[in-house]
């Protein structure tokens, strides 16, 4: 391999707060780590990507990245340097020429920064993106006073990815196991490697506090709003209950259909897929396929939601209208909302279920079946592409 990327995501992010490490928290519809990884997966000069994770993060990793074409993750060590060494050693079978080492906490990496680092590696063993320090620098004492001004000339703020000739940075890490160096450039310098500074980017911010996450949201703020609609109809047949939005409702008849005939969720699945311009339920789950006979429609709905997440988006709101004379929907409406919200992973406030009749008119008015209409509103962030899934 020519170039591989190593994403360091083994930290716990204690300063960040929250119930999960910051690399698994949500940034504009996707985990922070997923956005960091996709910067390298989308770059034409990167041949493979591997993530270094914490020892307890396997499930979080699978949920965030399990569908992406990555090399198997590696469990990191107690320090950043140990994690970097373990990650580098995991590439020994691939023997790449170059390696890019990136912090998972930098999810807004522009492709041009990767280009600059790789360009520098043509004639130097190490390259680090950096920005010159523009602010006046003060040195403070233990009392909180800062009377000394530090000359900012030749001071730079280092970023990642830091790029190296693979064999040399691996040897440097293995020679520095008794030291606690804070970045890979320091490891390289300790081994006598020349490291070139290349232009970084102000967009390539590092998430250290919750305020940083809010700043990063602006990088993905130009979301494209999409609205999709869906409609479905099922005729009554033998049975003593109907399943509507995942709720079994006693009734004198059932609904005929290849799956469980959940007309509400079928309409909603089509609405979500329609907003993605991603076909319809029949294309994804053909009624001619025996495996879907009697299937729980939660399978269809969760599949549509997963397609949204994989495309880099989120579901903002869904609205389902049931159209029937009977059974009565109102007594079951809240349960239908709760089941729908649970399958989609949405707060209840983003799910609407309501019902109407046709005043005795048409096939629903004659009690021949039940119809449903649904609308789904999505937010799709820059770089989304359903065709790449």
Concise synopsis of the structure shown:
Helix content is 29%, strand content 26%. It is an alpha/beta fold.
Describe it for me?
This protein is α/β, with parallel strands linked by helices and 389 residues long. The protein has 2 domains: 3-219, Spore Coat Polysaccharide Biosynthesis Protein SpsA, Chain A, CATH 3.90.550; 224-388, 2-Layer Sandwich (60s Ribosomal Protein L30, Chain: A). Helix content is 29%, strand content 26%. The protein is built from 12 helices and 19 strands. The protein has helices spanning 32-41, 58-65, 80-89, 111-120, 166-175, 184-190, 210-219, 263-275, 281-284, 298-310, 333-344, 362-365, and strands spanning 3-9, 26-27, 30-31, 48-53, 74-75, 98-103, 126-132, 137-139, 148-150, 156-158, 162-165, 195-199, 224-237, 241-244, 247-250, 254-255, 313-323, 351-356, 369-380. Strands 1, 4, 5, 6, 7, 10, 11 and 12 form an 8-stranded mixed beta sheet that branches. The chain has a 5-stranded mixed beta sheet with strand order 16-13-19-17-18. Helix 3 crosses helix 5 (166-175) and helix 8 packs parallel to helix 10 (298-310). The mean pLDDT is 91.
């Amino acid at each position: 391999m020519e170039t591989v990327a190593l994403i360091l995501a083994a930290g716990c992010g204690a300063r960040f707060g929250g119930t999960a490490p910051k690399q698994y928290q949500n940034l504009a519809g996707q985990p922070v780590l997923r956005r960091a990884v996709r910067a390298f997966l989308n770059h034409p000069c990167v041949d493979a990507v591997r993530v270094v994770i914490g020892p307890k993060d396997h499930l979080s990793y699978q949920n965030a990245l399990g569908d992406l074409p990555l090399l198997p993750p590696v469990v990191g060590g107690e320090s950043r340097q140990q994690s970097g060494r373990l990650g580098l050693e995991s590439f020994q079978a691939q023997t790449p020429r170059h390696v890019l080492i990136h912090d998972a906490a930098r999810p807004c990496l522009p492709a041009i920064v990767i280009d600059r680092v790789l360009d520098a590696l043509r004639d130097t063993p190490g390259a680090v993106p950096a920005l010159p320090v523009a602010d006046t620098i003060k040195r403070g004492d233990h009392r909180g006073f800062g009377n000394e001004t530090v000359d900012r000339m030749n001071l730079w703020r280092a970023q990642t990815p830091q790029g190296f000739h693979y064999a040399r940075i691996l040897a440097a890490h293995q020679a520095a196991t008794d030291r606690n160096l804070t970045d890979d450039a320091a490891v390289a310098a300790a081994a006598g490697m020349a490291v070139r500074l290349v232009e970084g980017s102000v967009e390539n911010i590092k998430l250290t506090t919750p305020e940083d996450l809010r700043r990063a949201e602006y990088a993905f703020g130009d979301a494209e709003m999409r609205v999709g609609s869906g409609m479905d109809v099922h005729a009554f047949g033998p049975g003593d209950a109907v399943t509507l939005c995942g709720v079994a409702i006693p009734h004198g008849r059932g609904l005929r259909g290849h799956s469980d005939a959940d007309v509400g969720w079928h309409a909603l699945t089509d609405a979500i897929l329609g907003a993605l311009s991603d076909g319809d339920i029949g294309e994804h789950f053909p009624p001619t396929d025996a495996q879907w006979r009697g299937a729980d429609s939660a399978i269809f709905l969760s599949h549509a939601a997963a397609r949204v997440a994989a495309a880099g988006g989120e579901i903002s709101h869904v609205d389902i209208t049931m159209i029937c004379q009977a059974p009565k929907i109102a007594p079951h409406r809240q349960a239908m909302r709760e089941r729908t919200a649970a399958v989609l992973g949405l707060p209840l406030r983003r799910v609407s279920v309501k019902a109407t009749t046709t005043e005795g008119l048409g096939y629903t008015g004659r009690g021949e079946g039940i119809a449903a209409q649904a609308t789904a509103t999505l937010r799709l962030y820059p770089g989304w592409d359903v065709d790449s899934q």
